[in-house]
Design a protein that fits this description.
- One of its GO terms (cellular component) is membrane.
- It is a lipid-anchor.
- This is Lipoprotein.
- There is one protein chain.
- The chain has about 290 residues and is α/β, with parallel strands linked by helices.
- It has ten helices and 13 strands.
- It has two domains: about 140 residues, Periplasmic binding protein-like II (D-Maltodextrin-Binding Protein, domain 2, 3-Layer(aba) Sandwich), CATH 3.40.190; about 100 residues, Periplasmic binding protein-like II (D-Maltodextrin-Binding Protein, domain 2, 3-Layer(aba) Sandwich).
- Strands 2-1-3-12-4-13 form a six-stranded mixed beta sheet, with helices on both faces. A five-stranded mixed beta sheet has the order 9-6-10-5-11. The chain has a two-stranded antiparallel ribbon with strand order 7-8.
- The two termini are about 25 Å apart.
Length: about 290
């Protein structure tokens, strides 16, 4: 089976972003050396992120970055599609919101390959958000009844991941030749409880729970929707998904060796940030090893 996703992603940048400042870490910025000449001036690193938990984690990292000589500036987004293009075009130095299959799908759909100016790569895994099954009415997956409605995300990587979780829970079976990174409801071969699988935008499932028996929700959207206490099942921390879908720091390939980017990853993987994640997000967000 194919290992990585080639999903469909929006190509346009939906939000207008300011260009990197003259003392940004971006390798495209020719005036960075001049800006760094003053010992009193911090080097700016611009990072795009979704608010929960990525933006919160970055906020926690600001002070440590400042102590190391960097001004960490965070641009928060409410949805995924604009964030990668903002790094590709140099508006941002890095982003923190996605897993590797999503990133590889973006590069493929944008026709970027290694060596291209807009090609993005991962420079470090920071945390993992277990996918979960959430319900306002059920306490256990065993309570799901014949004909119940269950929602799954409708974007390529997350729908496949949700369906795989439902398969692991014994609720359905996917075709043996299905690509487990791009599988859809069309790949379901067995559905013993005649479940109605509804495809919805990932960020809308939490709000639709009153009309569903259950929904499979990304960890960040479960937190944003304040439904974490409604989880009735989730991916185990030692699963293949825990390794495949770790959330990463992504940068332009040409920026991978930048000292500011290396420092950002170092800070985000520190014991201090790991403790912050564990204390504030519990099992909804798990620090990467």
């Amino acid at each position: 089976m194919k290992k990585f996703v080639k999903g469909l992603f929006a190509a346009g940048l939906a939000l207008s972003l300011a260009a990197c400042s003259s003392n940004s870490v971006s390798s495209d910025d020719s005036s960075a050396d001049d800006a760094n000449a003053s010992s009193d001036e911090l080097t700016v690193i611009k990072v795009g992120a979704t608010t929960t938990p990525h933006g919160q984690i970055l906020e926690e990292a600001k002070e440590a970055m400042k102590e190391k000589g960097y001004d960490l500036q965070i641009t928060e987004f409410s949805d995924y599609p604009p964030i990668n293009p903002a790094v590709s075009d140099g508006s941002l130095d890095a982003n923190y919101f996605q897993h590797l299959p999503y990133l590889e799908g973006y590069d493929a759909d944008s026709n970027y390959k290694s060596g291209d100016d807009g090609y993005l790569i991962s420079v470090g895994a920071i945390h993992y958000e277990p996918f979960g099954v959430y319900s306002e009415t059920l306490k256990d997956v065993a309570e799901i009844k014949d004909g119940d409605k269950i929602a799954v995300p409708n974007d390529a990587t997350n729908e496949a991941r949700a369906l795989l979780l439902l398969q692991e829970l014994g609720l359905l079976t996917l075709s043996e030749d299905a690509d487990l990174n791009t599988a859809t409801i069309k790949d379901i071969t067995e559905n013993p409880k005649n479940l109605e699988i509804i495809e919805l935008p990932a960020d809308q499932i939490a709000a639709q729970l009153p009309d569903l028996a259950a929904g499979v929700i990304n960890g960040n959207y479960a937190m944003a929707g304040d439904v974490t206490d409604l989880r009735i099942a989730y991916e185990p921390e030692d699963s293949d998904a825990a390794k495949t879908y770790q959330n990463i720091i992504a940068v332009k390939e040409s920026n991978k060796d930048n000292e500011g980017i290396k420092t950002l990853v170092e800070v985000l993987k520190s014991d201090e940030i790991k403790n912050y994640i564990t204390e504030n997000f519990g099992t909804s967000v798990v620090p990467a090893e």
